[in-house]
Amino acid sequence: MPPKRKSPAAAGASPRKTRSMAAGKQRGEAPAKVAKKEAAAPEQKGKKRAKREDGEAAAVVEKKNAGAVASDGKRVIVEACTQCRQFKIRAMKVKEDLESAVPGVSAIINPEKPRRGCLEIREEGGEVFISLLNMPRPFTAMKKLDMDDVIKDIANKIS
Predict the structure, then answer these.
(1) Do residues 151 and 97 make contact, with C-beta atoms less than 8 angstroms apart?
(2) Which of 10, 27, 54, 62 could lock 6 by a disulfide, CB 3.0 to 4.6 Å apart?
(3) CA–CA dist 58, 152 (Å, integer)
(4) Is residue 158 helix, strand or coil?
């Protein structure tokens, strides 16, 4: 028959400290720390959500503004692959030059997910100005293009 357990008062008098006794004290302290973290966590989540909501509201405003520009003028869509920064450089150049050369034109880069190895400049819902599709590296067809001439041709067609 196993020995009877000692009462808690007798165990407290002993200077000996076991792992289970130490764990019991830590468990008592841990919920207080967790409670503090739980109280702080919803505030941070709320702040992050508020920032996202502000960002979403700004995106909605930009879409409305883009729609207003499209109704006043023409919209040009530049679809540029994201695998290489050479596409991005040329797309930004086309956007900046077209918007400065032709008043009332808004250029949009990648409104949807772009195709791989693709550089395409087209009018929204209409004519395709230039289309280079499925280009393998090192993208020689794109690099041989004189972008200034391409932009001038597009500006002439639009206006």
Answers:
(1) yes
(2) 10
(3) 33
(4) helix
Measure the CA–CA gap between 18 and 16, rounded to whole angstroms: 7
* Closest residue by Cα to residue 132 from 74, 100, 86, 95: 86
Asked if residues 116 and 60 have their Cβ atoms less than 8 Å apart, the reply is no
pTM here? 0.54
The total number of structural domains in the chain stands at 2
Domain that holds residue 67: 40-72
61 and 104 in a common domain: no
DSSP string covering 47-70 = HHHHHHHHHHHHHHHHHHHHHHHH
CATH number, domain with residue 121: 3.40.30.10
- Up-side HSE of residue 104: CA atoms within 13 Å toward CB? 6
Round the CA-based radius of gyration of the chain to a whole number and report it. Answer: 32
Over residues 137-154, the pLDDT tens digits come to 888 999 998 999 999 999
